[in-house]
Amino acid sequence: MRRVTATDWTALLAADTRHVWHPYGPIPAAVPPRPVVGARGVRLELDGGRELIDGMSSWWCAIHGYRHPVLDAAVTGQLGRMAHVMFGGLTHEPGIRLAQRLVELSPAGLEHVFLCDSGSVSIEVAIKMALQFQRAAGRPGRTRLLSLRGGYHGDTFGAMALCDPVGGMHQLFTGVLPAHVFADRPPRGVDAPVDEAYLAHIDALVARHAHELAAVVVEPVLQGAGGMHPYAPAYLRRLRELCDEHGLLLLADEIATGFGRTGALFGCDHAGIAPDILTVGKALTGGYMTLAAALCTTRVAEGISGGEGGALMHGPTFMANPLACATALASLDLLERPAREGGTEWRRAVPAIETALRDGLAPARELPGVADVRVLGAVGVVQLDHPVDVAAATAAAIAQGVWLRPFRDLVYTMPPYVCEPYDVDRIAAGVVAAAAAG
């Protein structure tokens, strides 16, 4: 890897300040970004040689770490054959094999796969599936969706409309986005006793709006960017029952929760249910490139295909990109492969991370300003009783040798699954230090 000199970085960072818009930020960035020149394993190399353990898995996707030899080989091997070809009227082996693999791994009944560019796009496709299905079933008036407050489903317009319209990141667009129906946020805690009043609330809400609803949309057992909020699988089971009772589809957004992050392969597995439509993304390629998918049942696929238009009305230019599909196949193989064979072995890795995070984050409970500490699978969260001072919290984590990205009132981590025990211990120390500083 050619190093960029300090002089180069002086000019480049000046250009970054003038021209580059970073996520959820102003121009110029409120907190100057740190320049990264390389990454290997679970560590990022900054300009100047300093290394930081990546406690974010690059926004939850780099589950196998960086420069993994199996994933590198998948990319270079596919590149020697073809980098891309349109999926309209053509097909290719990586796309077919990936669809087969996703069907094998996903909850029972999901037999059909639409390969997308990104997680947000997979949500857009899933919304279209639900609306087209209801229209084909003779229920064209079912054009609204039921979502949960505290949820987050992406940054495109259809996905934004499903995010919490009051406390969410997209409330600026209220009045422009479609107005959907929102249930209260589920009571917190995967193991918390079931709240009968909440069950009555969702029962009544679905019954009142069933005539206009196409689907119920949920992040199974863990709401991600809307607050890192875990909830009991019992509520997911009741929503499945309500969808069946009222002729609605259940749409499970597993973009953040899929592929082992919560301690089960999919969040739906905690509840023992299968949705009608499921979306995946983020960790699908191990963080190497953008790819997502929307899966559905045969009932949904046949309904759409036999309805008005005779097709699902979507078709991304980079749909089923062969490079991304080949990498995703290698990433899914690594998930199951034993560590002694160079794999990630998530069933061993995720519980070990969960235990280490529970121990390592426990001291945060004694800090002033901490409202809650919670851990689920390979997710650790310290919630403050005030907005995080992002600059101070980030600096404190970096002082511990850890990269974190706090937001709102949360300092959290989603480590790569390949972290060694001492890596997780250092990440936990970084979270505690960031919470103390923020």
Automatic annotation (TrEMBL):
Pfam families in the cross-refs: Aminotran_3
Domain of life: Bacteria
Site (Participates in the substrate recognition with KAPA and in a stacking interaction with the adenine ring of SAM): 24
Molecular function (Gene Ontology), one example: pyridoxal phosphate binding
The protein's required cofactors: pyridoxal 5'-phosphate
Binding-site positions, substrate: 59, 152, 282, 315, 405
GO cellular component terms, A-Z: cytoplasm
Residues modified as N6-(pyridoxal phosphate)lysine: 282
Cell location: Cytoplasm
Keywords: Aminotransferase, Biotin biosynthesis, Cytoplasm, Pyridoxal phosphate, S-adenosyl-L-methionine, Transferase
Record-linked PROSITE patterns: AA_TRANSFER_CLASS_3
Pathway(s) of this molecule: Cofactor biosynthesis; biotin biosynthesis; 7,8-diaminononanoate from 8-amino-7-oxononanoate (SAM route): step 1/1
Residue positions binding pyridoxal 5'-phosphate: 119-120, 253, 316-317
Reaction catalyzed: (8S)-8-amino-7-oxononanoate + S-adenosyl-L-methionine = S-adenosyl-4-methylsulfanyl-2-oxobutanoate + (7R,8S)-7,8-diammoniononanoate
Enzyme Commission numbers on file: 2.6.1.62
EC class of the enzyme, as a word: transferase
GO biological process: biotin biosynthetic process
Biological function: Catalyzes the transfer of the alpha-amino group from S-adenosyl-L-methionine (SAM) to 7-keto-8-aminopelargonic acid (KAPA) to form 7,8-diaminopelargonic acid (DAPA). It is the only aminotransferase known to utilize SAM as an amino donor.
UniProt subunit comment: Homodimer.
Family stated for the protein in its record: Belongs to the class-III pyridoxal-phosphate-dependent aminotransferase family. BioA subfamily.
HAMAP family (alphabetical): BioA (MF_00834)
Protein name: Adenosylmethionine-8-amino-7-oxononanoate aminotransferase
Source organism of the structure: Paraconexibacter algicola
